[in-house]
């Protein structure tokens, strides 16, 4: 996958996780992908799914 597309995908994932307060299942539903796929992409892009501190 081209680097630019990967960057865009990673950004979308980060935004979904932020909107869902770090809830992976809810973020996956928002993105329209299976939870396992989201976990795979989190690992691929080395993203964290911890909720943001208040």
What this model shows, in words?
This protein is 67% helix and 0% strand. It is mainly α. Helix 1 crosses helix 2 (24-31) and helix 2 crosses helix 3. The longest helix has 17 residues, at 3-19. The N and C termini lie far apart (35 Å). The relative contact order is 0.19. The mean pLDDT is 92.
Mean pLDDT: 92
- Main structural class: mainly alpha
Q: What series of H and E elements makes up the topology?
A: HHH
Shape: globular
* Rg over alpha carbons: 11 Å
Beta fraction = under 5%
> In angstroms, what separates the terminal alpha carbons?
35 Å
Number of strands: 0
The description of the largest β-sheet is:
none
Low-confidence stretches: none
Please bin the fraction of helical residues: 55-70%
* Helix run count: 3
């Amino acid at each position: 996958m081209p680097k630019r597309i990967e960057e865009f995908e990673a950004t979308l994932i980060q935004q979904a996780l932020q909107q869902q307060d770090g809830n992976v299942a809810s973020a996956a539903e928002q993105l329209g992908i299976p939870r396992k796929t989201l976990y795979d992409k989190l690992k691929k892009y080395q993203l964290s799914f911890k909720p943001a501190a208040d």
